Amino acid sequence: MQKKQDILTNNKRRRVLSFSDLFFLSFGGQAPFISLLTFGTVMIAEVGTEGAFAMLLATFVVFFNGLVIYFLSQRFKRGGGYYIYALYALTSRLGFNTGWNYLLYALSYGGTLLAGGAFVLYTVLSQFIPYLSLPQWFFALIVSSLASGLVLAGVRTSAKYAMVMSLIEMLTIILLSILFLYDSGWNFYNPVPTTISPVLLEAVVFGLGIPTGYGSIAPLGEEAESRDIGKAAIAVLLFGGLLATFFFYSLGALGFTGNLVEYLLSRFGIISLLFIGFIALNDGTLGGVSYILADSRTLEAMAKDKFFPSFLSMVKGNKPIYAEIFTALIFILALTSLAYFVGLYNEFVILGALAGLNNLFIHLSANVSLVRISSKRKGKHIHQIIVGIVASIISLSVFFYSLPTFEKYIVYIFFGWIILGFLYAEGIEITKASSNE
């Protein structure tokens, strides 16, 4: 493993991303429109017109995890995100386990967005061209290959694509929200309900999936200034959460409690099919780009520390080209194969569940890392300790609350991946010990 001092003062970093680049990459990692259609439909089904209030609470909860990343990103200059935080704040083994689970998290979350985009695109084209008999795995192949191609074209190209397409999505969501308010006759109301729904907490849990996305920029420490990563993480979760709150507020003004996709189809007719198809392709691609980048940078950092073959850390053309190619191939093969065997919808459900569990795991690791490293100077960093403890309590509560709701095979895969990582790490230790004898 590289010496700690050399790592923290690495002078060969590839600083090519600005604050705005990070913001739009992170916003793309939210896949806002698909998130609103999927998580949002469930939230509305749970609490109806209280959706705006539930979304506001969800944003507040996510804000604590975002603060943890904000504080940790200021302390570490090296790329690798959650893996690096645990590696130096906790132990080498916990660092590996965090990085190991982040690899599955990024594949699952990015894969969920790509699969969701491919599924909506497949549905739209089936409506327009009913005689089109292309298999579902073909759409997974197209969307994942497009995202991979953008990543391999370079991080600057990916950032420019994210900026243009994110601006289009922001404008679309804002215009739709204003239109819904107009349809309601400008029915402004107090979003805080007088009586709380008994399933409000469940709706909040679903809402947690909407303003995320900052997890995709945490590993980009080699390409960006640490302070910009932290600032972008906070800015994008607040902007995304408040934008979603405004969207749900406008639906509440209409008294809407149904399916968002069906409503858009009924409101805009055939035009909405084209629009939803375009947004789905854009959203899936943006999410895929963000998490392929994040996964490749985590893989690069772990390869530097000899957890994976060293060629994966090699840099050519100012980027870890082999880590990017390897990660892109894994995304394409995993998504295409899964779509072939279970279909796009089931793929979306499986990957979404795995993303949720692994998200809680890596954030719990980050929260504990902040508490551990801040406790060394308690007087100066008491506020960081409090944030870490509160975020840990939230993550644990959501984990134990949601775990029984998952299918058993999802839980088996999640814990099986952790056990596989443990065995892999043990194998590395045994190999090192044997070579030193």
Describe the protein in words.
The protein has 437 residues and is mainly α. The chain has one domain: Amino acid/polyamine transporter I, CATH 1.20.1740. Helix content is 76%, strand content 0%. The chain has helices spanning 4-8, 19-30, 32-47, 51-75, 82-89, 92-128, 136-152, 155-183, 200-207, 226-254, 260-268, 270-304, 321-374, 382-402, 408-436. Helix 4 (51-75) packs across helix 9 (200-207) and helix 7 (136-152) crosses helix 12 (270-304).
CA radius of gyration is 21 Å
CATH fold-level name: Amino acid/polyamine transporter I
Name of the CATH first level: Mainly Alpha
Total beta strand runs: 0
* Total number of helices: 15
**Domain unit count:** 1
Instruction: Give the integer mean of the pLDDT values.
Output: 85
H/E element order: HHHHHHHHHHHHHHH
Q: Please state the structural category.
A: mainly alpha
CATH superfamily grouping: Amino acid/polyamine transporter I
Ranges where pLDDT stays below 50 over 5 or more residues in a row are 1-11
Q: What is the CATH-assigned architecture?
A: Up-down Bundle
Fraction of residues in helix: over 70%
Query: N-to-C terminal Cα separation, in Å?
Result: 18 Å
Q: Rough shape? A: globular
Tell me the major beta sheet: none
Strand portion, in percent?
A: under 5%
Membrane topology: Multi-pass membrane protein
Main location: membrane
GO molecular function: transmembrane transporter activity
Keywords: Cell membrane, Membrane, Transmembrane, Transmembrane helix
